[in-house]
Every structure is written in C-alpha cells, then in structure tokens.
C-alpha cells in the first residue's frame, strides 16, 4: 500500500515546494499512527504558499485510507471561500458544532451537538480567527471545537491559518495556531509546519509580492514598509481624487459585491459607505432595495433553527430585497426589511427588524449605554404581567430588543473583512504618524492586502512607502 505522502504528491497538481513535501511526509504518521492521542496538525502558511491547493490534494487522498472529511471555517464568508476552492460543501464552525435550544424562559442557548463522524479528518480554514474566549457556549470556541472533534474514535484535526493575520479581537496571538498552547491546554498530540515558499505559479502577483514583503517585516526588529506597484499588473497606487474612477472600474468589472474598501476605523467605514452610496450608486434615500449590509452583532431571533445558516452571525452579509416600514420606538429608529443572506445560497429570504441607528454610528455596534436604555424601556412595558417568568419570556421575545444591528458593507474595517476575499480590494492607509508604523500596523496591512484575489488598490499611501 502506498504511503499518504506518495498519494498526496500524485494528487498535487504542481511540483511541490520543499515545505509542501515536508507536510506530505507528516501525513504518513498523522493519518496512519493509531497510537496518537487526539491527533492534531497545525498548518501555518504565508499567503501564496499553496495552502488551498494542498487542501484539495488532501481531500482526494483521504478515501485511500478509509477517512472521511468535514470542511469548516469560522465565518459564513470564509466557509464560502473554502467551498469555492475545494468544490465541496463547507460549514461554519457554529453551524456544525452547536445546536440552538430553547430555555424554559423562552430564550435560546447553544449546546454542543453530538458528533456522529468517525474516522474523519476535520479541516478548519482561517483558524487564526478562532478565539478561546467564551462565545457561543460556556467554553471558548476552540475548546468546544476540540471537544466535538475528539468525542469520536479515529478522528483527526487539521488547523490551517496564517499567524501574520490579525488575531481574534482582544487577543495578542491566535491560539488555534500555537502548537504549545494546544498541547498544554488540550493534551493533544500535535505537530506543526509552516509553509514559507511562495509557489512559482503565484510569483508574478504584486498582491503576493507585497504580502510576502510585509510578512517578512514582522520578523525584523524595526518595522519598515516598502510597497511595489509599477512592475505588476494587479497592484496600483491611488490618490483619493482617483478613488471614484477606481471604484466605478471595479464595480463594472467584478460587480459591487466583489469589491470592497478596507479602512482603519468604523468611523472611516461609515464615511466611505455614505460616499459610495451617494457619489457612485446615486442612492438618495438612507436605505434602498439592493443595498448590501453586514450584520455586526450575533442575532438568534429571525432565522428558524433548521436554517442553513443556523443564526445570523456577526460578519454575515445580507442584501436588502424590500423595505416594509420605518418606525421610531424607545428613542431609536427601526426598519422592517426583507433580506437575503449572500453567503448561504440555500437560505430562503427572511424578514427582520433592523436598528437604523447602528448604520451611522462610529462604533462597531450599538454601545452598551444605548442597549441598556433600550432594555430598560422594553422591560418597563411588561411590568403589569403577573409573574416574573412571564415578564422574562415577553422581554426575550421583544422584536425591538432583538432587532438586527447592521452597517453598509461597501467599506469595512480589517477585522470585519477577515476570512473573506474580494476580486478588487481598496486599502486606505488611514491616519498614520511615524510612531504608528509598527508591527501591529504591518500585520493590519498584511491582512488587508491578502483579502484581494485579482486587483489591489493602495489608497492615500505616503510616497515614502513606495
């Protein structure tokens, strides 16, 4: 019987790099060794090093060793990208691992589902985004993921990501890509490998040339930015004056949903979104059918549990199909909309109440003080109900308290864009002093640059960076 490494090489469509060959050899032990305890492999890799091509070869190799596979990613957009490059179904982690169940009081809680997959390799892309801070369940997402995967015999876990990308919000590192953390926290037998050689097929790309340069700067003591555009056909520098022409070009060539501006702050994103709607789309009303929005806070109210998406997650994209009515309540403005999730083709359109105020807020979502006011005003309406249980049930079902929080999605912060890819990406340098050019900014810029698949536009960057 051939070894996994031999079959992987035969299924790989290019001449593998040294790093890819080393990875294939790791599979000889990873797939075959039955003595491993919770076998885990971490594949870290620079942009353009062939991580996605490797996954395609792995999926084709698994049946030879009686393994099945499950493909997962942290967000709907990342799962859609994964499904695109593998030509196979990919799930969000929360849809696969968790199940919504109703509490006696009428609220929803997430419980880890039973895992019925045996002898299965779970392949998780964009693992740099996975936090181990409590989120969907009582544990961190990473903890629940590992508990789920290894609750059945013969399962294995492959975590794929890039440590140069932004870590989860509020974290300094990406725990799912840290070998020592995984071994010490979860007792798994873990191996790790990092792909560093950009594949020959990608070496003509200015996007990947600049990404590689930026990533290499993260290894240097002093952060220096040097961007190259003139010798590449896919990377351009642009002043603010040319932005309108550039956006029109990208929208005409790729479609509105396949182009995005990535900027430094929510305030900048709000300004850019207003500019795009006014100057390029000629939209006069504050919200219209055809507008694209991003959900900015998890919402468990508007989708049935059986839906393809599971729930409306922070980072999901929707298109406005119809505006039903506007209203003002509790000092906030609301609108009822008919919406279509853009990254779940099997999901039926649905109706939801949306808070209009968050669209224009310079903050990421409705702030705690505003939400507290809303909660208190909603609560006061149910004071005449006879029992506490009835009051809690009514509050939890209140459509205004459960209203979706959204922003326009033509311009996004880098964290909001993570896990997604667009054909054309416009990266705005943002306000930047000499002291602000540090490793954190380079990591931000690297993550933004690597969202582009076909054309990259560097907007308002200082001449000294070229």
Structure summary:
With 466 residues, the protein is of the alpha/beta class. It has three domains: 4-195, 3-Layer(aba) Sandwich (Rossmann fold); 204-285 and 411-465, P-loop containing nucleotide triphosphate hydrolases (Rossmann fold); 291-408, SH3 type barrels (Roll), CATH 2.30.30. The chain has 15 helices and 18 strands.
Q: Which stretches are poorly predicted, pLDDT < 50 over at least 5 residues?
A: none
Q: How many separate helices?
A: 15
At CATH level 2, the architecture of the largest domain is 3-Layer(aba) Sandwich
**Separation, N- and C-terminal Cα atoms:** 54 Å
Strand order, biggest sheet?
A: 3-2-6-7-1-8
Biggest sheet record: 6 strands, parallel
Query: What's the number of structural domains?
Result: 3
- Percent of residues in beta strands: 15-25%
Number of strands: 18
**Mean pLDDT rating:** 91
Helix content range: 25-40%
Over the alpha carbons, how many angstroms does the gyration radius reach?
A: 23 Å
Organism: Roseivirga misakiensis
GO molecular function: ATP binding; DNA helicase activity; endonuclease activity
Protein name: ATP-dependent endonuclease
Keywords: ATP-binding, Endonuclease, Hydrolase, Nuclease, Nucleotide-binding
